[in-house]
Amino acid sequence: MPETKFLTELDSFVERVDAIDTAPGSQQLLGRIADEFGFENFTYLGGKTITVNGVRQFDLHEPPFCITNFPDEWQRLYIQNDYYKIDPAILHLMSSILPATWDEFAATTPLVSSQRKMLGDAADFGLQRGFTIPIHGPSGEFGLLSLTSSVRTEEFARRIERSRHTLHLLAIHLHNALYQRIRNPEPPAAAVRLTQREVEVLRWTAEGKTSWEISGILNLSERTVNFHLDRAKKKLGVFSKTHAVAKMYTLGITKIF
């Protein structure tokens, strides 16, 4: 691609990223960016880390927030198996400032059997090859952008070689936009008013139940369950049901209205 055209397209992407100011807008833009660079799935994770006894870990007083189009069943399996504790992408985030493919993780630090199983499970859901970009802020805040594709290894490598640095730059702008303008400060617990149904669906979600399974338990339609989940996410100021569950318990919301 000629340099002038490349810079024009890069400027266009950066302008679009810098302009996002809503959660739905960020989800849609992430989808467009992934598609235009040849990826099918994406996950953005943002939050804070702290150092305990010389080891970096998530700050549980400020649960990470997530924007993703990864399959719901994979998210459920990921949570049930506590894969975040061994996920090579998370471990890479904690120890590096440079992007890497999932194959590069294995080349740098050999994977243990549990990690190989996790990646095998991910592949079963179409998440076969990935590229992860870590972003670190000055006060412990972090961002992580993972993009995945099911194309052949050789084609995936070509796409990464062509776009690695552009995606890195875009991820930095994306993190700044999400962290500074979209991610809201923790609301006081008293300001969050969840209905009985919203609390119920979040509690069953915490047990690893899907919307379809919750609909059977509560004798509701799946559409109604998703309605209550969406309302709860909006009230809690989060993007995903996983983050909604974490925030509900972190804020100690037990009273229903």
How would you describe this protein?
This protein is an alpha+beta fold. Helices cover 55% and strands 15% of the residues. It has helices spanning 3-19, 23-36, 72-80, 88-95, 102-108, 113-124, 153-182, 196-206, 211-218, 222-236, 241-250; strands at 41-52, 55-58, 65-68, 100-101, 129-136, 141-149. Strands 1, 2, 3, 4, 5 and 6 form a 6-stranded antiparallel beta sheet that branches. A hairpin with a 2-residue loop joins strand 1 and strand 2 (55-58). Helix 1 crosses helix 7, helix 8 packs across helix 11 and helix 9 (211-218) packs across helix 10. It is globular. The termini are far apart. The mean pLDDT is 81.
Provide a quick synopsis of the model.
With 257 residues, this protein is α+β, with helices and mostly antiparallel strands.
The unreliable regions are none
Described by the principal axes of the CA atoms, the overall outline is: globular
The helix/strand series, from N terminus to C terminus, equals HHEEEHHEHHEEHHHHH
Helix/strand-derived class?
alpha+beta
